[in-house]
Amino acid sequence: MDELFKKQKKNLGIEVLRMILCFWVLCFHCLNQKKINYFLFFLTKTKFYHVPCFCFMSFYFSYKIFLLRDMNNCKKRIERLLIPYIIWPLIIFIINNYLLKKSIISFSVYQLIIQLILGRQFIVPFWYLFVIIFLTLLFFILSSLSKKNFIFIIQILGLFSYIVQYSNYYNFLEKYNSNVKGSIIGALFLLPLSVTGIIIAKSNIITIFKENVGKTLFFSYLLIYSSFKYNIFVDIGAYKGMINIFTSVSLFIGFYLLPFEKSCNFFQKSIKYFTSYTNGIYCLHSYIIYCFKLYFRISGIFQNSIIIYLFTYFISFLGMKILGKTKLKYLFI
């Protein structure tokens, strides 16, 4: 979570949501989509709200960086993102090339460079970190150049992004390889989510919702159910279209307003414990899935998703015990 958010008291509902989204991402990368277990409603092949919701929350909790042009916290945010973005690929490169059998899964220096530049090569999910870093720098530059018109400018960018998405103007990128295309298109698709996060945070509308928690939660869950059950908007593909804003905001409000703070101390501590290390789990899961399938021949069933989640949690737990007093803690939290 962002540095600004860390200084505030954590919202336990959002921590639970982060854990669900993290597990959701892991399931999509682990499960055999043809034999998927549907007893969890979000495990459908056409619903990709996890990454958009992550993006929305990231900029919701960091909006003051841009509105106040806070250089110090912007540097901290970039540092927090760059540490896992750079160090995890280096660690995995060393493990693959020098600790495991090179003939099986070794990586070249060229592949490492591509991974570090674009966030895609042998740790594909890092395209998301690439996008968040890029959008953070873009928004901070824009806010520094024009504080008065910053919100208007990013609103125009968000609208432009939707025009490009719905018109398929980005198809010219198809001539590039998947690494280049994936990261650039990812930034284009997530741009409106980041803009919406900033705007909603600035509006402070969540305060109004707190005055009518029961009714707000009712409509939030009704909207969430509707977005999964029905095609409310035209389906134009993963991470694309207004449905992502619609669902991300509904999920955020639906969990943010949950009254966990009224529960007993033991329950609150349990939530904090079980929802920890989502960053480490996100960063490690694709590589661990690959290793498990390679060495243990596991199949893409739901039970194995739980095993991999717990395994990456355990690695992150140990990592925090060893590195928790250094900046390398950002590899896990």
Largest sheet entry: none
Strand content: under 5%
Q: Give the total of domains.
A: 1
Number of helices: 16
Give average pLDDT, whole number. 90
From the N-terminal CA to the C-terminal CA, the straight-line distance is: 7 Å
Radius of gyration: 20 Å
Structural category is mainly alpha
Helical amount among residues, as a percent range? 55-70%
Low-confidence stretches: 1-7
| H/E element order | HHHHHHHHHHHHHHHH
| β-strand number | 0
What shape does the CA trace take?
globular
Describe the structure.
- The protein has helices spanning about 5, 10-30, 50-60, 65, 70-100, 100-105, 110-120, 125-145, 150-165, 180-205, 205-210, 215-230, 245-255, 265-275, 280-295, 300-325.
- Helix 2 (about 10-30) crosses helix 13 (about 245-255) and helix 3 (about 50-60) packs across helix 13.
- About 70% of the residues lie in helices and about 0% in strands.
- The termini are close together.
- By secondary structure, the chain is an all-alpha fold.
- The chain has one domain (about 5-85, about 125-280, about 300-305).
Topology record:
Blueprint: H1 3-6, H2 12-30, H3 50-60, H4 63-67, H5 71-99, H6 102-105, H7 109-118, H8 127-145, H9 150-167, H10 178-203, H11 205-210, H12 213-229, H13 243-256, H14 265-274, H15 278-295, H16 302-323
Helix pairs in contact: 2-3, 2-13, 2-14, 2-15, 2-16, 3-10, 3-13, 5-8, 5-15, 8-9, 8-10, 9-10, 10-13, 12-13, 15-16
